[in-house]
Specification:
Elements: H1 2-12, H2 16-28, H3 37-60, H4 62-81, H5 86-114, H6 118-149, H7 154-157, H8 159-173, H9 187-210, H10 215-235, H11 246-249, H12 251-281, H13 286-291, H14 294-311, H15 318-335, H16 344-371, H17 379-424, H18 431-467, H19 483-489
Helix pairs in contact: 1-5, 1-6, 1-8, 2-6, 3-4, 3-5, 3-9, 3-17, 4-5, 4-8, 5-17, 6-14, 6-16, 9-10, 9-17, 12-16, 12-17, 12-18, 14-16, 15-16, 15-18, 17-18
Amino acid sequence: MVIAIAQLMVVLDATIVNIALPSAQRELGMSDANRQWVITAYTLAFGGLLLLGGRIADLVGRKKTFMIGLVGFAVASGLGGAATGSWLLFGARALQGAFGALLAPSALSLLTTTFTIGKERSKAFGIYGAIAGGGAAIGLIAGGLLTEYLDWRWCLYVNVPIAVIAFVGAAVFLRDTPERGRVHLDIRGVALGCGGLVAIVYGCSEAKPRGWGDGLVIGLLVGGVVLLAVFAWWQTRARHPLLPLHIVRDRNRGGAFLTMALAVIAIFGMFLFLTYYFQTVLGYSPVKAGLAFLPMVAAIVVGSTQISARLLHLLPPRFLMVPGALLASAGLFTLTFLTAEPAYVAQVLPAELLVGLGMGLTFMPVMATATTGVAPYDSGVTSATVNTAQQVGGSIGTALLNTIATSTSATYIAGQVADVARRSGARGLTPAVRDGIVKDGVVHGFTLAIGVGSAIMLLAALVAGLLVNGRAPKHGPVPAADSAKSADAV
């Protein structure tokens, strides 16, 4: 529970500020061009520094970095909540992301090294998987409640008591035995790997306002890919690699990383679209919009803790991943039939339940598979790679699907306005008619983008079915299958 509380804080902070952003923008006088940095500063620092954070956890000890991450995250949150200007808030969000990059890999690697027995491990990963899958939705709910009933600043202040509780719990309950002397820091690898990740995450963030054809976006994405290619080359030659390549070469682990990335690409756009659908199309308040996600959160918890956790030690992981991804794909496909007319109970609710169950079935075995059989001194960087797949997938998914939605909506609205003007003349285009066209166009863009997400989720099911061929774990301790290879690598 200590690990779960800390992980929840990191995951929900990626979305909790979204609903508070309009209020923060008005109070701090942010420009429309700069307001995205409240989100981008966090994702850049978090996504770019994860590999470094994971290796530091291996180097100095997971419990120590976990507790340092908690303190730093709490301080950064307090600074952000007290910000008197926009750039102070941007800096605090970047600091949050940096300490989150230290905290998240430490949390998952502590889970991996603490729970090694079959049923016990399944229960622990069931709770963790529920948080990984539902954290974004929980952030939207919390953001709505805090913004409407308290103040936008409490979306940041709320992290302070959470971090204090987790810190005390960590001091009392967590145990760690760092493997000193076996891990070294690869400085060139840090520069190449973190630089490549920052470039890709930043490129995806800029693709939302600028478009994928913009020169800066293309330059960042190409530069990021080149840096990561050089990083991969360097890891084959470095004496002490930042990311030992045997970690990603393993068929099951590599399949789990890829499944995670694809699933998050497909899902993250849905959170964005449904938030806008609830508030701009259906006219929900921030609180009502947040609460509308509750059924999905409940389904994720049930799928992860009551189904996956009970079956993971009995079934091969892909027997959970594939049905889970198919359920999520079906739920996303259901949303492609949305219209501007209110249809929460008839369409949104069934889709949320399907997607939630699917995510609960998918995320938990993905994380368990990705971290199984890793030597303790590689657990931090392995956990960081899982988080990196999730973070980069979220950045790509949000930017890609948002571009599809906005471009499709603009084309639809322009065509409908021209059609009405041609048939009825300028008088026929009343404010009510124009408003109806805009809402129809927005929903049309959402449904097309979510349809693409559904197809990507099908691809995740295919990847899991073809690549992840591991057997059901036994009831005994999970073996560190890569120990010998890890020793050779480091």
